[in-house]
Design a protein that fits this description.
Layout: E1 2-6, E2 13-17, E3 20-29, E4 35-42, H1 48-69, E5 71-73, E6 76-78, H2 82-97, E7 105-110, E8 115-120, H3 123-149
Antiparallel strand pairs: 1-4, 2-3, 3-4, 5-6, 7-8
Helix pairs in contact: 1-3, 2-3
């Protein structure tokens, strides 16, 4: 799905001609007097199951994107890839098991173009970072589940 902008109130499912349909979700104010939607075109009238797959897939992709690149710690962007999450957990677990004797540990934060290296010297500082990252992931997952639970599927079957 891609983001589109509309000045009016676009229907969430619409025949656009020659057997093609637009399926839309995630309608929100675009801040410019209109709306933004996630939209996908399909070359047939989609079934409700196909619509669910598109909409839930969109929510999952947005949730994954937010987890991956939305966390910030002490004004530093933190890339929460699966590999990085594993590395952060391993460093934290080892620091806890050794009562901080495995420290210092250095992590690379920021962006590719603007990397920031941070040295964790104390267990308390590493704990603050790691528990913050885990809390962020859990919050984003909960928001994704709530978004899925709040979809009104009846608007797609009218």
């Amino acid at each position: 799905m891609k983001i589109v902008h509309g000045g009016g109130d676009l229907p969430l499912i619409e025949s656009i001609g020659r057997g093609w349909y637009a399926v839309r979700c995630d309608k929100h104010d675009d801040g410019e007097g209109g709306y933004a939607y996630a939209e996908e075109f399909v070359n047939h009238k989609p079934t409700l199951d196909e619509i669910k797959q598109l909409v839930l897939g969109w929510i999952d992709a947005r949730t994954d994107e937010r987890i991956l690149s939305g966390y910030s710690w002490r004004d530093m962007s933190v890339w929460l890839s699966t590999e990085n999450q594993f590395n952060y957990k391993a460093a934290f677990d080892l620091a806890v098991m050794t009562d901080g004797d495995s420290l210092p540990v250095t992590f690379k934060f920021g962006t590719t173009g603007n990397p920031v290296y941070h040295v964790f010297r104390t267990l308390d500082e590493l704990r603050s970072f790691y528990t913050g990252a885990i809390a962020y992931i859990n919050d984003v997952l909960a928001e994704g589940w709530a978004a899925k639970d709040s979809v009104d599927w009846s608007v797609y079957s009218e």
